[in-house]
Amino acid sequence: MPQLHGDLPLSLRSESESGGIVSASSKNVVVEEEEEEEEEEEEINDSPIEEVRHTVVSTDDPSQAALTFRTWTLGLLSCILLSFINEFFTYRENQLSIGTVCVQIVTLPIGRLMAATLPTKAFRVPLTGWTFTLNPGPFNLKEHALITIFAGAGASGVYAINIIAIVKAFYKRKLHPVAAMLLAQTTQLLGYGWAGLFRKYLVDSPYMWWPANLVQVSLFRALHEEEKRPKGRLSRLQFFLIALISSFAYYIIPSYFFPSITAVSFVCWIWKDSITAHQLGSGLKGLGIGSFGLDWNTVVSFLGSPLATPAFAIFNTMAGFILTMYIIVPISYWTNTYNAKRFPLFSSHVFDSSGHPYNTTRVLDDKTFSLNFQEYDAYSKINISVVFVYTYGFGFAALMATISHVALFHGRTIWQMWSRTTAKANKKFGDVHTRLMKKNYKVVPQWWFHLMLVVVLALSFYTCEGFGKQLQLPWWGLLLACAMAFIFTLPVGVIYATTNQQPGLNIITEMVIGYIYPGKPLANVVFKTYGYISMAQALGFLGDFKLGHYMKIPPRAMFWAQLVGTIVASTVHFMTAWWLLSTVESICDVNNLPPGSPWTCPGDDVFYNASIIWGVVGPLRMFGKLGLYSKLNYFFLLGLLSPLPVWLLARLYPDKEWIKLISMPILLGGASGLLPARSVNFIMWGIVGILFNYFIYNRYKKWWLRHNYVLAAALDAGIAFMGVLTFLALGYFNIYGMDWWGGLEDDHCPLASCPTAPGVLIPGCPAVQ
Questions:
Q1: What confidence score (pLDDT) does residue 503 get?
Q2: Least buried of 279, 578, 602, 621, by fewest C-beta within 10 Å?
Q3: Residue 437 — pLDDT band, cuts 50, 70, 90?
Q4: In this structure, are residues 489 and 200 in contact, taking their beta carbons and an 8 Å threshold?
Q5: Cα angle, residue 436 at apex, residues 433 and 437 outer, rounded to 5°
Q6: Whole-angstrom distance, CA of residue 490 vs CA of residue 357
């Protein structure tokens, strides 16, 4: 059977499981004791985790400089560029997210060039005894890792920017720029406090091994090994440059000359007057049957690069997509479940009972910016499209499936690892990596984290309570959000550090505050951000600390790189967003944008409608007894039970490896991944991913190992540079494409959004009798 490469390292078979046979005979007891002694000796000499032993080097050279002039220069520059590019593309029809792989590849030759050309002379700082040099020697792996961590702060995005966007662009309300800036900073920095409180267990413990970091370690080692260019072939750097230039040159076609090739839906062209044909064939507003795209941005815009996604994850994700879009959605729509025919088949918007867009301003009190319950009862309940219904339903299921999947498949191992961690923490137990770090470098004082927590928490209170309470969240709401983040950081961190799966808190947080404090849209999203993102940021910091742990980077250098990188990234993300939201004409307003404009803000559109559902109306009037979608609560039970059959099959047929590759959290996550992603995004992502990570991986493995990730980085970087260039040269002046049929970023399926229920009249749609 061909390999589904890149399996998540979920086979966390601990050392205690590999040796020892329970037996009453003294001979077997002796064998057991000898094996346990060997285990202990092996753990003392190296990591107790097999994958770590095979990946991470157990030596260190403390003489290598880490936080150098090159690190600061390339790290800050990478952080600024990735922050600007990723935020810039967030508001466009086809989003783009540039990851740290680009930085890893590009900064290596630049760092070596700086090492070869910069002066080595030492400079003295006036009035101090400090000295520094621009060139401390050869560009080393520790510098490279720190630069990547800097860049990661910029690549990760700032969740709170969504709040700023919906306030300014959707609700059309004023927001104090200082309040907006503080919101962006505090939500990103609050996680430092939780990270400091739990680093002893989630970083120092050898049993908390963070599987995703091993990919980074492997890539760093591959890049720093001496590469001999094969005769007649290209080096990885040459291949990268050729692919980068090709991607850069080609992207002018879909970005300016022929934007319509981003989604080609020929079924709509054949049956121009059929609503059903448009619903079936549209890749942007329908099921996407036969639709495809000739733009790399269509492939990566919402789901990330398929070249960097394991094949088994792609198969699971596409299975979830097919289950939703080609089985459940068609059955539900054409049987008129939830009055589906009154609304568009595929939409992230909210509607009233007549099938028209929901008039939010009618039910919102303009002075208090909260729900007017009397007006809401007199107007209409919230209705959503059938795709949006199942996006939420499978989202509920995916959350619960993650919990039960981890409990069934990895619960015993996690418990064993946690037991070892807590039992040996007081004995200052650590593997070789922990001992090297504590021997060679000063630890970060705990009071640094405590001070950060106190300062950021104080700023958070000021952000919520000050500025005329524009953000609506009271002080007790902030404390509750922090309490939820604090409670969940450790258990979710243990799961993430051992299984590479991170259950999200976004649905839980918005549901909790929605029940407690309904009718307050900003309070809901601010609570969600402080509760969910501070935990996610804490785990991001801890994961980076573990990467630095493996790379033997001084902990204090890691601390300052993360802190400065986070502050700089938050600032650049905020400034870019504020600039675009203040200067781009009718940004996010699809009805008033100039023809061909890409500034449709698909992600913020979903965030805005979620704020209406969870914040304005609240879960009681949406998914509770007062709402239309109370049956979706059964998806929580469905998700909780869904991994059980897979687990039973895996135990009944242990020799069938493919059964273990069925991941219900990923499958259900694929089913819930639509909106803002469209059908054509999933289709092209799946095709490219299966082609490269299944067929090419199994048939041309050497080529794949040498060029796959380099190709992914080059294609992403090429469209990023051309996208920014075309905006500065053309888009800034509202020039988005040539004036012809293919000059619009649209798949020319205008009827795909039309209702098919009799009597529902929508402008531009034919009347259905």
A1: 67
A2: 578
A3: confident
A4: no
A5: 85
A6: 42
> What is the C-alpha to C-alpha distance for residues 329 and 162, in angstroms, rounded to an integer?
28
Q: What value, to the nearest 5°, has the Cα angle with vertex 703 and ends 701 and 709? A: 100
Q: Cβ contacts of residue 408 below 8 Å, gap of 6+? A: 643, 644, 647
d(CA 602, CA 689): 23
Tokens of residue 744, six digits:
């619009």
Q: Is the pLDDT of residue 104 over 90?
A: no
Other C-beta atoms closer than 10 Å to the C-beta of 236 total: 18
Q: Decide if 697 contacts 311 (C-beta within 8 A).
A: yes
188, 566 Cβ separation under 8 angstroms: yes
Find the angle CA(551)-CA(556)-CA(557) to the nearest 5 degrees. Answer: 60
In terms of Cβ atoms closer than 10 Å to its own Cβ (0-12, 13-18, 19+), residue 735 is middle
Separation CA 180–CA 173 (nearest Å):
13
In terms of Cα–Cα distance, which of 757, 33, 654, 65 is closest to 343? 757
Residue 315: how many other CB atoms lie within 10 Å: 23
Question: Is 70 exceeded by the pLDDT of residue 227?
Answer: no
Eight-class DSSP state of 341: G
Radius of gyration of the chain (CA): 27
Residues pairing with 122 in the sheet: 133
Q: Tell me how far CA of residue 656 lies from CA of 125, 223, 405, 501, 652, in angstroms.
A: 65, 36, 18, 23, 9
Cα separation values, 175 from 179, 494, 589, 716, Å? 7, 38, 18, 34
* H-helix or E-strand spanning residue 371: strand 370-371
Residue type, 46: D
CA distance 552 to 555: 8
Find out whether 753 and 344 touch, Cβ atoms under 8 Å: yes
Are the C-beta atoms of residues 199 and 545 closer than 8 Å to each other? Answer: yes
3-state SS assignment for residue 384: strand
Round to the nearest angstrom and report the end-to-end CA distance of the chain: 54
Give the Cα separation of 563 and 583 in Å (integer). 30
Distance in angstroms (rounded) separating the CA atoms of residues 679 and 676: 10
Alpha carbon distance 323, 325 (integer Å): 6
How confident is the model over 79-90, as a mean pLDDT?
A: 90
pTM equals 0.80
Rounded to an integer, what distance in angstroms lies between the CA atom of residue 338 and that of residue 351?
12
CA atoms of 18 and 39, how far apart (whole Å): 9
CB 354, CB 341: distance < 8 Å: no
Q: 337 vs 301, 379, 621, CA distance in Å?
A: 31, 22, 19
* Arithmetic mean of pLDDT over the chain: 84
pLDDT one-digit tens code per residue, 266-313: 999 999 989 999 999 999 999 999 999 999 989 988 888 888 778 888
Count CA atoms within 13 Å of residue 507 on its CB side: 16
Lowest mean pLDDT among 123-132, 282-291, 670-679, 710-719: 123-132
**Tens-place pLDDT, residues 35-63:** 444 444 444 567 777 777 877 888 888 88
Complete DSSP assignment for 182-194? HHHHHHHHTHHHH
The whole-angstrom separation of Cα 498 and Cα 496 is 6
CA atoms within 13 Å, Cβ hemisphere of 185: 24
Between the CA of residue 12 and those of 52, 399, 500, 656, what are the distances in Å? Answer: 11, 22, 11, 18
